[in-house]
Design goal:
Elements (H helix, E strand, L loop, with lengths): L2 E5 L3 E6 L6 E8 L6 E5 L7 E3 L5 E3 L5 E4 L2 E3 L3 H10 L4 E5 L12 H10 L1 E7 L3 E2 L4 E5 L2 E6 L4 E7 L9 E6 L2 H8 L5 E3 H9 L12 E3 L4 E2 L9 H14 L6 E8 L3 H22 L1
Parallel strand pairs: 4-9, 11-19, 14-19, 16-17
Antiparallel strand pairs: 1-10, 2-3, 3-9, 4-5, 6-7, 7-8, 12-13, 13-19, 14-15, 17-18
Helix pairs in contact: 1-2, 1-5, 5-6
């Protein structure tokens, strides 16, 4: 039987938030069994906590934002994805600002910090939602389907009408090893034509070639070579892993996605949560 998991010791990262541009110190802190995952705003009076859960999602403009009243934490998906891959179910994440550090635009440093801390099994069994019936979400040419599967697998097709970004496809069973090798290093990206629009929306204040890949009309701009020839579809899978873990527990399912982004990912996660609640009512 799978056990609940936390980390062995406190570990700290710091940097700027990609959208807010705010400098943040973030601490991963061990949590007791059944505590779940929470983000704690230590910069606010009373250090309010926001549970990492689909019911707390309050925004999805170029990233996933969770909140409780006026308390918000932006861009949580890059943190949630490595927690999912490691099977961490209980951890307290303290921030002294409103967004985790973007670091290099991937999840590599979050994963490394968590591994450095160490992952420990706890006494209580971990609840796992095993999907029994297909769930789907469609809109135009965007598709998300979740199928029963003995494990956690994502198959993603990315396609943009852009000369430098042909269709990319990847299908992968997600676990600690595959996530670390194939998904965690992939960086966030945007199109050059979007930069001014995003800035006008008050976003990407902390964005730069240090933490993102920018796709121009005739070239791809990056501080280093692309880490994979299909780095962009891999980052889409990273986002989907993180958004799905807002279900609040591990899930057994095969998720098939085409051209999905945060808003669409979260619609599927909400349906998965509804299916989970339905399964609980049947069992009870």
């Amino acid at each position: 039987m799978r056990k609940q998991r936390t980390i062995k010791k406190e570990v700290i990262l710091s940097g700027i938030g990609v959208h807010t541009g705010n400098r943040t110190e973030m601490k991963f802190i061990p949590a007791e069994p059944n505590a779940g995952i929470s983000f704690v705003r230590t910069d606010l009076p009373g250090s309010p906590a926001v549970k990492a859960h689909i019911s707390k999602v309050v925004g999805f403009m170029r990233g996933t934002t969770i909140g409780e009243g006026d308390v918000k934490v932006h861009t949580v998906e890059h943190v949630m994805a490595p927690l999912s891959s490691l099977g961490v179910t209980n951890v307290r994440i303290e921030l002294d600002s409103n967004e985790p550090p973007v670091v290099d635009g991937s999840s590599v440093e979050f994963l490394a910090a968590l591994r450095e801390s160490g992952i420990v099994d706890q006494s209580e069994p971990a609840e796992v939602f095993e999907l029994k019936e297909p769930i789907y979400e469609t809109e135009g040419d965007m598709i998300l389907v979740a199928l029963p599967y003995d494990g956690f697998k994502i198959s993603y097709t990315l396609s943009f009408s852009h000369p430098k970004l042909k269709a990319q496809y990847l299908s992968l069973d997600i676990n600690e090893q595959s996530f670390a090798k194939e998904i965690a290093p992939s960086r966030t990206f945007c199109f050059y034509r979007e930069v001014e629009v995003l800035m006008n929306q008050g976003l990407i204040k902390g964005g730069s070639l240090d933490n993102a890949v920018v796709i121009g009309d005739d070239a791809v701009f990056s501080k280093e070579e692309l880490r994979f020839h299909d780095e962009f579809v891999r980052h889409k899978i990273l986002d989907l892993v993180g958004d799905t873990y807002l279900l609040g527990l591990p899930v057994k399912a095969h998720i098939i996605a085409a051209k999905s982004g945060h808003a669409f990912n979260l619609r599927l996660t909400k349906k998965l949560y509804e299916a989970y609640l339905k399964s609980q009512s049947v069992h009870n």
